[in-house]
């Protein structure tokens, strides 16, 4: 036998067990986003490498080690998108959408990051991304929180998600804060783990995110970013918190919440769940008011978030939501004798013409009749139609109703009526 070739580590095949949940999720995403007048867009999976380098920040995890970049046949460096915001900003600039009024978008698709695969962390994973452009005031920050909160409610998971929120101020605020933070961490270097030591000068904010208990302990005494944030940003943030509160949405103010990408400012937030292990952030986002300009557009405020679909599915599964078993097959057709195959195919086509929503399965395998019936039962089929030479001679079909174990003969018209009665919505 030839050696088997497997998929790339951290990249998975998805089967109907998961895809059924994905499709239901997508339907609900669509419905909720539509109710807020957000429009769906589809963006390329490949972009020029330089766009991510310019937007995400040189010393972030993504740029330093997570990008799938390669040269095409002309020597251009291309990258499989590690996230969706940058491509979306590129697109709205390129298509002159900034001059239009409708600037609320969403997309769903695969992202790629060369990370260490583990539960909830993969190399190809899917995100639902939402981006809004041109709105400066915190009303849109509130709308985004209300929208995500509504999603969790409709999905039935709101009690298992907690909102964490922070303001990271302006870039200038963060430069001033970074100096103080680095001074503090230098003084306490002996308490830092190897990872944090490496980040001390390249990306000290990531240390705030460290899972190491010693580091977390020492961080309790570290200077806090909120002391360095400008007055205007602080007022905006306090007002936003009040507004969120007034809608009865519980949140935790987390002064150490920073995002892994450089382009954020002011509001940042994450929705987390305790039920899915250590990779517990299901949805993350924030404001990025300078990115459009950084990528060559006119100065435009912006805010967005992304939901990690696999992590959301892990949570849905842990709560058994959407897991009600549905019929995998509605009508199972068995022909007895090769000469009757054509009658089975023709009947299945006729049923599909009249009842396009039904799942009809014609058994072509050459296993025994009892095995076929067993398969029909396992696939939760409602009825089995048997076609043998006897039935063809009598111009009728033998019907087995699996739930009642009843058997009866029907001519074609009666069969169609019966199907209508059983499966009418
Ligand atoms: P994390 O701290 O979990 O690495 P991040 O800051 O890198 O998250 P974002 O870039 O904000 O994540 O992505 C938004 C969401 O996409 C995350 O909250 C998570 O649900 C999901 N996500 C990010 N990276 C992965 C991955 N490698 N595998 C699966 N889901 C992911
Ligand atoms: Mg990450």
UniProtKB/TrEMBL annotation:
Cell compartment(s), UniProt: Cytoplasm
Subunit field text: Homodimer.
Species this protein is from: Buchnera aphidicola (Aphis helianthi)
Enzyme class, UniProt record, top EC level: ligase
Residues the entry annotates as binding L-histidine: 83-85, 113, 127, 131, 259, 263-264
Keyword annotations: Aminoacyl-tRNA synthetase, ATP-binding, Cytoplasm, Ligase, Nucleotide-binding, Protein biosynthesis
Catalyzed chemical reaction(s): tRNA(His) + L-histidine + ATP = L-histidyl-tRNA(His) + AMP + diphosphate + H(+)
A Gene Ontology biological process term: histidyl-tRNA aminoacylation
Protein name as annotated: Histidine--tRNA ligase
């Amino acid at each position: 036998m030839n050696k088997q070739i497997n998929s790339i580590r951290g990249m998975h095949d998805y089967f109907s067990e998961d895809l059924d949940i994905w499709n239901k999720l997508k339907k609900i995403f669509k419905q909720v986003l539509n109710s807020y007048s957000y429009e769906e867009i589809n963006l390329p999976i490949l972009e020029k490498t330089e766009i991510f380098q310019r937007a995400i920040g040189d010393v972030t995890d993504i740029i330093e080690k997570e990008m799938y970049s390669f040269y095409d046949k002309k020597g251009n460096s291309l990258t499989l998108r590690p996230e969706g915001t940058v491509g979306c900003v590129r697109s709205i600039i390129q298509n002159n959408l900034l001059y239009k009024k409708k600037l609320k978008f969403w997309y769903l698709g695969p992202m790629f990051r060369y990370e260490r695969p583990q539960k909830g962390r993969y190399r190809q994973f899917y995100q639902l991304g939402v981006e809004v452009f041109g709105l400066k005031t915190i009303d849109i920050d509130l709308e985004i929180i209300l929208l995500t909160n509504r999603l969790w409610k409709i999905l039935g998971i709101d009690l298992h998600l907690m909102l964490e929120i922070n303001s990271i101020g302006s870039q200038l605020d963060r430069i001033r804060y970074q100096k103080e933070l680095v001074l503090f961490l230098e003084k306490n270097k002996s308490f830092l783990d190897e990872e944090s030591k490496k980040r001390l000068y390249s990306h000290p904010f990531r240390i705030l995110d460290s899972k190491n208990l010693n580091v977390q302990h020492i961080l309790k005494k570290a200077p806090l970013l909120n002391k360095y944030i400008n007055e205007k940003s602080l007022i905006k943030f306090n007002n936003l918190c009040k507004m969120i509160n007034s809608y009865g949405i519980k949140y935790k103010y987390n002064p150490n919440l920073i995002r892994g990408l450089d382009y954020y400012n002011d509001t940042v937030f994450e929705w987390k769940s305790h039920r899915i292990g250590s990779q517990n952030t299901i949805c993350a986002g924030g404001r990025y008011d300078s990115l459009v300009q950084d990528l060559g557009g006119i100065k435009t405020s912006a805010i967005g978030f992304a939901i990690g679909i696999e992590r959301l599915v892990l949570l849905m599964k842990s709560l058994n939501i959407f897991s009600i078993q549905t019929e995998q097959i509605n009508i199972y057709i068995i022909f007895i004798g090769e000469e009757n195959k054509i009658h089975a195919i023709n009947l299945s086509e006729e049923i599909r013409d009249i009842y396009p929503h039904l799942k009809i399965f014609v058994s072509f395998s050459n296993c025994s009749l009892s095995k076929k019936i067993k398969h029909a039962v396992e696939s939760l089929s409602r009825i089995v139609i048997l076609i043998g030479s006897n039935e063809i001679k009598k111009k009728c079909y033998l019907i087995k109703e699996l739930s009642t174990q009843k058997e009866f003969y029907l001519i074609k018209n009666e069969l169609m009526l019966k199907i209508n009665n059983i499966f009418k919505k």
